[in-house]
Amino acid sequence: MSQNRTFSFEFFPPKTPEGVAKLRTTRQQLAQFKPEFFSVTFGAGGTTRDGTLAAVLEIQGEGHAAAPHLSCIGSTRDSIGAILQEYRNHGIRHIVALRGDIPSGMVGIGEFRYANELVAFIRETHGDWFHIEVAAYPEYHPQATSAAADIDNFVRKVEAGADSAITQYFYNADAYFHFVDAVRAKGVTIPIVPGLMPIANFSQLARFSDACGAEIPRWLRLKLQAYGDDIASIRALGLDVVTELGDKLLSGGAPGLHFYTLNQAGLVSTVWQRLGL
Ligand code: FAD
């Protein structure tokens, strides 16, 4: 950590023993940067419950702070309550609280409709034990009925007790600054840490971005697309773009950076070094 800013790295729970071993190596490489915490995602509807817990405990066992993600859609209060209690029993004090997406084929949405209800539930049942992070969308959530409604819904999560927020990734720095100004104007004072997604593979990034509402600027999309199978050129351009973005965000006052690592240390480490963190 530097200058009281918060830096963190996100992983997904590996499904195979090879994946577990690889993540261990990735973590060792990233631990040298002394992040504030490592977070671990949670599969929709609790599908990775055990994998998330196992990864979190391993991180904690290595002496690092771990923040499990927890999504509530399709869950009951009892099942979420049991997960929270399990984390608390293990001394975990940091949660990324999300609604999640309804998995196809799931019947009923369960007892929580939106993330603000999960935040309120965590506060109701555990007081201030957990530091609660929530998600923010500088380019707005794909299901938002309007930009204004999405801002109001973000504010709802803060009023329910969120301590800080991590954004969806984006490649337009202005979207972040506009979002922060808009929520500050509504009285929100919590830190809003931008999420940075390195560019490793164009088709995968385009698919993710279309699904989550993150815009790949036209000039960047066309250039990346034109590289075809030339992974080295895609990565080289991606490193330039993401480093410049990180630099703009930090020099514009962002309170840190959250890196979406996809369980790989290489690109993230290069961005980190180029930013001189
Ligand atoms: P919410 O804040 O509940 O918002 C969802 C939508 O509902 C928005 O359009 C919002 O405007 C609207 N809304 C919110 N509250 C209300 C209300 N009271 N009334 C009417 N409309 C409302 N997904 C996973 O499955 N696992 C993960 O581990 C995971 N980690 C993530 C980490 C980060 C940092 C981010 C940015 C996203 C992550 N996601 C994860 C994706 C996330 O679950 C999806 O984007 C999901 O669609 C929305 O979750 P949310 O918590 O932002 O929902």
> Termini, distance in Å?
8 Å
Number of strands: 8
Under CATH at level 1, the class stands as Alpha Beta
Mean pLDDT, nearest integer? 95
Q: What general form does the structure show?
A: globular
Largest sheet: number of strands, sense, barrel closure: 8 strands, parallel, barrel
Low-confidence stretches: none
Radius of gyration from the alpha-carbon trace, in angstroms: 18 Å
Q: How many H/I helices?
A: 10
Pathway: Amino-acid biosynthesis; L-methionine biosynthesis via de novo pathway; One-carbon metabolism; tetrahydrofolate interconversion
Keywords: Amino-acid biosynthesis, FAD, Flavoprotein, Methionine biosynthesis, NAD, Oxidoreductase
EC number: 1.5.1.54
Family: Belongs to the methylenetetrahydrofolate reductase family.
Question: What does this 3D model show about the protein?
Answer:
The N and C termini lie close together (8 Å). This protein has 277 residues and is an alpha/beta fold. Helix 3 links the parallel strand 3 (66-71) and strand 4 (94-98). The protein has one domain (6-275): TIM Barrel (Alpha-Beta Barrel), CATH 3.20.20. Helix 4 (115-126) runs parallel beside helix 5 (147-159) and helix 9 packs across helix 10 (266-275). It is globular, with a radius of gyration of 18 Å. The protein has ten helices and eight strands. It has an eight-stranded parallel barrel with strand order 1-2-3-4-5-6-7-8, surrounded by four helices. The relative contact order is 0.13. The model has no long low-confidence stretch (mean pLDDT 95). The chain binds flavin-adenine dinucleotide. Its cofactor is FAD. It catalyses: (6S)-5-methyl-5,6,7,8-tetrahydrofolate + NAD(+) = (6R)-5,10-methylene-5,6,7,8-tetrahydrofolate + NADH + H(+). Belongs to the methylenetetrahydrofolate reductase family.
